[in-house]
Amino acid sequence: MEIKELYSIFLQHPTITTDSRDVPEGSIFFALKGESFDGNQYAISALEKGAACAVIDDAVIYDNTTDNARSQLILVDDVLLTLQQLANYHRRQIGTTIIGVTGTNGKTTTKELIAAVLKKKYNVLYTQGNFNNHIGVPKTLLQLTSEHQIAVIEMGANHPGEIKTLVNIVMPDYGIITNVGKAHLLGFGSFEGVIRTKGELYDFLRADEGTVFLNNDNPHLRGISAGLRLIRYGQQDAEGLLVKGEFVECNPFLKFKWNTVPSPYSPFEVQTKLIGSYNLDNALAAACIGTTFAVPADDICAALEEYTPSNNRSQLTVTADNQLVVDAYNANPTSMAAALNNFRVIKADHKMAILGAMRELGEASDEEHQKIVNLVNECGIETVWYVGEEWKEAMTYKNIDEVKAAIAANKPKGHIILIKGSNSTKLIQAVELL
Fold first, then answer.
1. Element (H or E) spanning 400, and its range?
2. What superfamily in CATH does domain 95-306 come from?
3. What's residue 328's pLDDT?
4. Of 349, 390, 389, 386, which Cα lies nearest the Cα of 367?
């Protein structure tokens, strides 16, 4: 079936599902494959639960299905590729202005802040949670309607070429790379590989005459920005900035000032609910994009002040016994160092850190973990638990089960506690116990 034909069906049944356990009435079921499942095996079940049709790529199932059920099956060569092509076709038909967001750290928070700012003036579709991969991105695009004026689409990657694939589906008009750092080195091969892959967003926009929002303070991003139409923001004085920001304090929540350049007005002061001075760049990106799209400055400030982080990113949780700085969704050398450098300036009588291992670092793992241990030793933290065998001699506990046992035996009290680690270390389980 041609994508144009499938699109006609989609217009009649605009709800997409890839989970046979959740099949809205009249939806289209896409039978995706995974490492441990084959969605083709659940296509008939999805139809029985109310799907209007099911897109499959298993000819044997198609041929052995009754004529009645077969009429609701759409056989294609590759279900995932078809989903992506349908999303791209829909994106081109709708024509909504799209801002693509990627980066090593901060992309989800930045996407959320951009959306919060733009929603003050526009009807905005934006990536929910961190559904930023080869499945989540097309599913988000297929939620676009003619009522959406702007879409903010997050794109993630852990291997070369992944951003290029996603960008070609999304076809953004604007783009932003939050930063580049040492993450997923096992997949990218090197830090240079990270830069090249994230830069695939720039490559598309350069060829398509799109526009990039550039953190002018970042030398790596400046270095790959030649030939691009740029809108710049930053903290350091420089020619050509649209928005300039200034750190005020972070104790524990970020407070900062910002203004357009030049401006006849005094700087705007914003008190956020974000933990971490490293979030200043993310907030300035949102202010820059809001300014570009003519969102009034007062509305930009209000949106940044109202935004409350979730998904275990830069959150402050106050319990009966402690204050928890929860940043346990993910970790890499860049984000771990940023979290520790922020934690060291927070004023508190008793500080503790529970640090999970940083995964997918390949041959650089030992060196990068030791650098973090060295940094911790400079931070004046009273108690530190290193969780995971990657910490080598510094390791306190092998895994989350040992951490939970330690908390149950002797629960810390009266501390501010930084909880930071790769998602696979499951440190989020410690939050409930604390």
1. helix 400-409
2. Mur-like, catalytic domain (3.40.1190.10)
3. 80
4. 390
